[in-house]
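Quick one, tokens below. Sequence please?
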């Protein structure tokens, strides 16, 4: 079968391929985001089983998981990227992590006859505890503590990547304030019984200490190299027999320090008040007792255990991305309408198996059209800014020009009466003309006119001086007869 025929269905912007893992409620598939302009990204898509997809309670729980997971942002938690609803089904889109589950790593080490190194186990469980603490401290949009409890902490829900980081996932049965209370009905217990706290098995109210108990069970199994409860009935019997003492992991593995045993047994205390107050407190105590290593050493161990399996999946994912499936056209927007159950076509040989979807073209609201509008808006803003900058430069130039010193007006020359009218000349011009006429090597100017020394008129801004008056003589006075 070709890679093109492996595509199971297309949901919105995502193409689903073969499954990665399957649990009690849902199956996780390889997926690929098909964006505009050829953009593509590998993702993991979680899909409810068919029998649960028709149950409104499970669908509501699935949607609730997406809402809770959208609030979680931590390096030790697998992020949720998107939620897609199509044909009456809900798909949870998560980040694709190249790695293996902790349960699979336990199994691979067991097949090799090995036990996970103590410091590797300490580092992985410590990272899981940090993710748990981040989930416990999650707050609402108003800043109120949600009191979120995972309630399904187990090796199956811890993913260890090739980067050496342990990530917590699957908050499907998590409980938080404000979440629908009908998710767990009377007498119904959800989760893996072998990792449940005694109060959770009894159906009592649970808090973050129940997750700490589950993390302690995971730590016990990582250190001892075996399951704490081989069967589900053993966990139930443990609760019914008034909690007999649990042997420390050092009873099954030598060279474990007493400090590690104390951390494990305190986390497994039947009384919630005797356990660690927070997952962060347990992580700090675990690193002090066991000595955690860097993510580089964890990554090297994961690569030695499961590098071949992870590499095959990575090559397969690259094959899916290069299988020729067309990305979403940049001028179109894909939308699905209810057209029956989400199943592949009956004849896969006719081409890639896809869901019977209807494509709606809404060019006015396509991503490409929005990009063009955004580009035009940015160009207009740039032009307006350039115009304002030019106006500012012109204004600065005009202001500097206004402050330059102005030339003084030429003086007013008074001409003697009777002299022929002639053009006025400034003193500087007269001096230049005199120098030109006195030089032996100078050339005569045909229309040159000799300049006369004329008295300069008094300034206009002051009163004109009055001529002194002569005293009349006695002989000049008129005589009276």
């Amino acid at each position: 079968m070709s890679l093109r025929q492996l595509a199971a269905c297309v949901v919105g912007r995502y193409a689903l391929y073969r499954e990665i893992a399957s649990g009690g409620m849902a199956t996780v598939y390889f997926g690929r985001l098909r964006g505009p302009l050829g953009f593509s990204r590998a993702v993991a898509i979680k899909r409810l089983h068919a029998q649960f997809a028709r149950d409104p309670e499970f669908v509501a729980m699935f949607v609730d998981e997406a809402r809770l997971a959208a609030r979680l942002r931590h390096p030790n938690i697998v992020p949720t990227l998107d939620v897609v609803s199509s044909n009456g089904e809900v798909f949870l889109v998560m980040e694709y992590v190249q790695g293996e589950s902790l349960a699979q790593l336990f199994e691979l080490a067991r097949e090799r006859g090995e036990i996970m190194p103590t410091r590797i186990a300490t580092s992985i469980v410590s990272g899981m505890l940090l993710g748990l603490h981040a989930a416990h401290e999650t707050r609402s949009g108003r800043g109120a503590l949600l009191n979120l409890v995972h309630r399904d902490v187990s090796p199956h829900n811890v993913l260890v990547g090739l980067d050496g980081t342990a990530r917590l996932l699957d908050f499907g049965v998590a409980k938080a304030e404000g979440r629908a209370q009908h998710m767990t009905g009377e007498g119904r217990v959800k989760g893996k019984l072998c990792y449940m706290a005694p109060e959770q098995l009894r159906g009592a109210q649970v808090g973050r200490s129940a997750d700490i108990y589950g993390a302690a069970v995971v730590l016990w199994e990582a250190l001892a190299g075996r399951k704490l409860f081989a069967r589900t009935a053993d966990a139930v019997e443990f609760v019914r027999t008034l909690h007999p003492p649990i042997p420390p992991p050092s009873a099954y593995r030598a060279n474990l320090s007493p400090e590690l045993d104390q951390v494990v047994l305190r986390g497994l205390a039947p009384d919630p008040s005797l356990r660690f107050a927070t997952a962060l407190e347990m992580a700090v105590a675990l690193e002090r007792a066991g000595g955690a290593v860097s993510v580089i050493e964890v990554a090297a161990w994961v690569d030695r255990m499961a590098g071949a399996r992870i590499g095959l999946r990575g090559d397969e994912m690259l094959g899916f991305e290069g299988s020729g499936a067309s990305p979403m056209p940049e001028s179109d927007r894909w939308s699905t309408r209810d057209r029956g159950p989400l199943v592949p076509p009956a004849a896969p040989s006719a081409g890639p198996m896809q869901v019977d979807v209807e494509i709606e073209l809404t060019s006015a609201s396509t991503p490409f059209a929005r990009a063009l509008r955004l580009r035009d808006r940015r160009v207009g803003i740039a032009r307006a800014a350039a115009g304002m900058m030019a106006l500012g430069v012109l204004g600065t130039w005009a202001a500097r020009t206004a402050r330059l010193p102005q030339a003084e007006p030429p003086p007013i020359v008074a001409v003697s009466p009777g002299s022929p009218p002639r053009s006025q000349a400034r003193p500087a011009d007269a001096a230049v003309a005199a120098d030109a006429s006195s030089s032996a090597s100078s050339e005569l100017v045909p229309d040159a006119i000799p300049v006369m020394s004329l008295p300069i008129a008094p300034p206009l801004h002051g009163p004109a001086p009055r001529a002194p008056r002569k005293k009349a003589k006695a002989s000049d006075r008129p005589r009276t007869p």
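The two ends are 156 Å apart (CA to CA). The CA atoms of residues 245 and 269 lie 9 Å apart.
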